[in-house]
Amino acid sequence: MVERTRTPLLSMRGITKRYGAVESLVDVDLEVHAHEVVALVGDNGAGKSTLAKVVAGVVVPDSGLVEVDGAPVTIPNPKAAQRLGVATVFQDLALCDNLDVTANLFLGREMRSAGVMQDSRMEAMARSVLRDLTSRVPSVRTPLSHLSAGQRQSVAIARTLLGSPRIVVLDEPTAALSVAHTAEVLTYIERLRDLGLGVILISHNMNDVRAVSDRIEVLRHGRNNGSFDAQTASYGEIIGAITGASRVGRPLRPVTAAS
Ligand SMILES: Nc1ncnc2c1ncn2[C@@H]1O[C@H](COP(=O)(O)OP(=O)(O)OP(=O)(O)O)[C@@H](O)[C@H]1O
C-alpha cells in the first residue's frame, strides 16, 4: 500500500450541520491524503452527501475546522473549493448529450483567442486529459449520446482534471452501472490515485468500495461510526458499523501512519 504523507491534503474536524431539528452531521472528522482513496459509506440519510457538499463548498457547516495542506481554510462556495483544488463529480454528471466529448470537457470554459474558438488546442488538451485517465472514449469528437455509461463517467472525471484538482469527490459513480461499466469506472478511480490525487468515494456498493479504496469511513445518523483499512476489514465489520450492529468509533486522531 502507498505510504501516506504526514500532512493530509484535506482534514475536516468536528464538522456539524443541522437543518432545524435534523442533525445531518454531528462532530464529523474526515481526512484524505495524496495517493489515497477514502470511501465514505453509510445508510440512506447517514450524511454522506451533506459532507461531500461541505467539501464542495455547496453547504457551509455550522461549525468545524477544515484544513488543506495543514492550513485552516473556509469553503464558502464552489468557486472557493475549486481554488483550493477540490473537484466534485455529482451523480447527474452534468453532461450535455447533444455535444461531443471535447465540447463537454470545455463547457463554460471554452478556449478562445481574439474571440475565435481554439478547437485544435481544446482537442489536444482533451486527448491529453483522457489519456491521463486511460479513458476508453473512442474519439474526442464522439457525441456524448454515443458513449457508454462508463465512458460518460470518464468524461465527467476528465473534466475535473482540466482544473488540476488535488482532491476529487465522486458521488456514487457506479450507481446503476453494469458490471463491466462498473469495472471500467473503478479503473478510473485507481488512475486518479496513481496520479497522486486524494479521492473521496461515496458509494453504497461494498464490493466497489473494498475493491478500490484504501480506507473506509462509516457515517451513521450523521456521526462517524468506524474507520477501516479496506484491505483487512471484513464485510461483516463494515456492514455492522453501517447498520449500527457494532460501533467502531471515531477515525483515529492524530492520523495513523502508513498501513
Ligand atoms: N437541505 C436539507 N434540508 C433539510 N434536511 C436535509 C437537507 N439536506 C440533507 N438533509 C437531511 O440530512 C440527513 C443526511 O442527508 P444526506 O443526503 O447527507 O445523507 P446521505 O448519507 O447522502 O443519504 P443517501 O445515501 O440517501 O443520499 C437526512 O436526514 C436528510 O434528510
Structure description:
GO terms for molecular function: ATP binding; ATP hydrolysis activity. Residues 10-246 form the ABC transporter domain. Keywords: ATP-binding, Nucleotide-binding. Pfam families: ABC_tran. It is a single chain. The protein is globular, with a radius of gyration of 18 Å. Helix 5 runs parallel beside helix 6. The protein starts with 9 loop residues before the first strand and ends in a 16-residue tail after the last helix. The chain has two domains: 1-85 and 165-259, P-loop containing nucleotide triphosphate hydrolases (Rossmann fold, 3-Layer(aba) Sandwich); 98-163, no CATH class. Strands 6-9-10-3-11-12 form a six-stranded mixed sheet, with helices on both faces. A four-stranded antiparallel sheet has the order 2-1-4-5, with no helix packed on it. Strands 7-8 form a two-stranded antiparallel ribbon. With 259 residues, the chain is α/β, with parallel strands linked by helices. The protein has helices spanning 48-56, 78-83, 101-105, 119-132, 149-161, 179-194, 206-212, 235-243, and strands at 10-19, 22-32, 36-41, 63-68, 71-73, 86-89, 112-113, 116-117, 167-171, 198-202, 215-220, 223-229. 43% of the residues are buried. The model is unreliable at 252-259 (pLDDT under 50). It is built from eight helices and twelve strands. The longest helix has 16 residues, at 179-194. The protein is 31% helix and 26% strand. The structure holds adenosine-5'-triphosphate. Residues 19, 22, 24, 42, 44-50 line the site of adenosine-5'-triphosphate (ATP).
